[in-house]
Amino acid sequence: MSNKTMSEPVQVLLPPEWPTPHPGCQVCGALALQRDEAQAAGDYSKVSDCNVEIREHKDAHPRRRR
User: Fold this and answer.
1) Residue 16 in contact with residue 39, Cβ under 8 Å?
2) How far apart are CA 1 and CA 62, in angstroms?
């Protein structure tokens, strides 16, 4: 006998906000430009790749002391 009940609904989260490039960093700026061009072309896989690279590259920048 097969189970005819429905499973629980899938919870889909909103994607995280895009990371902000570090001010004055040429690498972050170039990645942000690539991301904008990819979005305009509808290449959301590349947009995601650029976001990951910006997020990881920002970790290389020194943190401001409070």
Assistant:
1) no
2) 62
- Angle between helix 26-41 and helix 44-58 axes, rounded to 10 deg: 160
Q: Give 9-34 pLDDT, tens digit per residue.
A: 888 888 788 999 988 899 999 999 99
Q: Are 50 and 34 in contact (CB under 8 A)?
A: yes
Q: Give me the residue label for tokens 């904008």.
A: 36
Burial of 8 (0-12, 13-18, 19+ CB in 10 A): exposed
38, 48 Cβ separation under 8 angstroms = no
Question: Which tokens go with 39?
Answer: 């979005």
Q: What is the pTM of this model?
A: 0.70
